[in-house]
Amino acid sequence: QRSSSITSEDSQTNSGVSWVPSYFRVALIGSNGVGKSAISRQFLTSEYVGYDVTTPENEEQETTVSVLLDGEESIMEFTEDPQVTDLENLHVDAFIVAFSITDYSSFVAATSLIQHLRVTMGTDRTILLVANKIDLVRQRKVTAKGARDFAIKYDCDYRETSAVLNHHVDDLLVASLKQIRSKLSPPSE
Ligand code: GDP
User: Fold this and answer.
1) pLDDT the model gives residue 9
2) Which residues surround ligand 1 with Cβ inside 6 Å?
3) Each residue's pLDDT tens digit, 105-141
4) Distance (Å, rounded) from C-alpha 63 to C-alpha 165?
5) I want to staple 98 with a disulfide (CB 3.0 to 4.6 A). Which of 30, 49, 67, 90 is the partner?
6) Measuring from atom 14 of ligand 1, which residue has the nearest CA?
7) Which of 78, 132, 134, 169 to mutate to test the pocket of ligand 1 (most atoms within 8 A of CB)?
């Protein structure tokens, strides 16, 4: 029924409408308590989400959403807390590595995860470093500059979010999809 929004003009002008949505997997990793579940729950409320594919009922369930961006639909599956020992064998298109700005050790953990990913997988995989809980400004233990400098050095996008306030979580969803798409080679005409 969604195809009703795709006109014949779209297909004739090849305006980028996908008939079959691409399916992308994203792993959300980071220390316990940094807000990974809260972030993935907020993805469901994004204005870019066309319809919920899976609304998780328990912690183990994956969040899967349909995202409409730039006239194209993509299905995105978010896996939380995969086994760290298996990270390089995970078939995912991107990693969102989260830490809490109130917990310096969670930043240190995030930096070692990213170093591990870059050593084992090189630079072809999308990685986003996310500083969460920015609503807790007065408890801040990690500076934006320190985190951003690290992200630049390791070829990662850097974002700051507050999952409880739903602040910049939408931007994170869009940024991860844009970067996954930009790493794919364009289809040959
Ligand atoms: P996870 O273990 O990484 O999945 O973390 P959770 O999503 O379970 O969050 C851990 C705790 O941090 C919960 O009590 C959340 O309500 C809280 N939390 C998550 N995100 C934020 C945030 O952006 N700001 C604040 N103040 N608390 C948050």
Assistant:
1) 42
2) 32-38, 132-133, 135-136, 162-164
3) 999 999 999 999 999 988 889 999 999 999 999 999 9
4) 19
5) 30
6) 33
7) 132
